[in-house]
């Protein structure tokens, strides 16, 4: 990277760019399942054999379910999800998180009580889960524990899995040491930092033994 675009001189995106990058992130998450639905429909259009038709229908069913789960998660994690000052049920957040993240390779142990928390605090939790998932690219377990209680509760997520690692640059994006690159991948941890700041918290990402810990305090 040249000196002109080094982390020290990177600038935060303006509101329009932030909105555009978050939209790009949502589209990125949806391209794969929606594309699979299209592929399945094309197979059906070709008047396939019975076994091919069943394969296509199964592909469409699974991909539609995945697309729906990702849309619901993105609406809560990145969208408005209620009026300003609204509260969100942690039980709903758990349902959205499991639908989006649990895929046969990655699973969640949810140790949070069921209660209402301020909207941005729940959005922060969901975005912390996305960050934690990136640390176990081959799959594993995300364990979600509370820090404190009540409306000021924050969170600790322990990611365990084969070859758990710190993704490049994400720690700097969370801490503010590095500005976000203009792509959908970098904007998500940057947005996580903005959510933490709105809650008066700081998100950290650090190894602990063979696990990676994402915490907000």
Automatic annotation (TrEMBL):
Residues 91-210 form the Histidine phosphotransferase ChpT C-terminal domain. InterPro entries: ChpT_C, HATPase_C_sf. It comes from the Bacteria. It holds the Pfam family HPTransfase. This is Histidine phosphotransferase. It comes from Bradyrhizobium vignae.
């Amino acid at each position: 990277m040249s000196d002109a675009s080094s982390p020290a001189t990177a600038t935060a995106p303006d509101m329009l760019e932030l909105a555009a990058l978050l939209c790009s992130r949502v589209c990125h998450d949806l391209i794969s399942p929606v594309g699979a639905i299209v592929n399945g429909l094309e197979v059906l259009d070709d008047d396939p054999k019975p076994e091919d038709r069943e394969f296509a229908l199964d592909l469409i069913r699974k991909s539609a379910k995945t697309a729906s789960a990702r849309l619901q998660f993105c609406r809560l994690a990145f969208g408005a999800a209620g009026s300003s000052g609204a509260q969100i049920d942690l039980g709903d957040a758990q349902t959205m998180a499991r639908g989006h993240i649990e895929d046969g390779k990655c699973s969640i142990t949810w140790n949070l009580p069921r209660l209402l928390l301020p909207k941005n605090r729940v959005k922060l939790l969901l975005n912390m889960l996305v960050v934690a998932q990136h640390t176990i690219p081959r799959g594993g377990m995300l364990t979600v524990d509370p820090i404190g209680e009540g409306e000021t509760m924050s969170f600790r997520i322990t990611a365990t899995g084969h070859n758990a690692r710190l993704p490049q640059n994400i720690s700097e994006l969370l801490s503010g040491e590095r500005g976000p690159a203009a792509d959908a991948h970098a904007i998500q941890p940057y947005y996580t930092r903005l959510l933490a700041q709105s809650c008066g918290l700081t998100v950290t990402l650090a190894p602990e033994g063979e696990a990676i810990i994402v915490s907000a305090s």
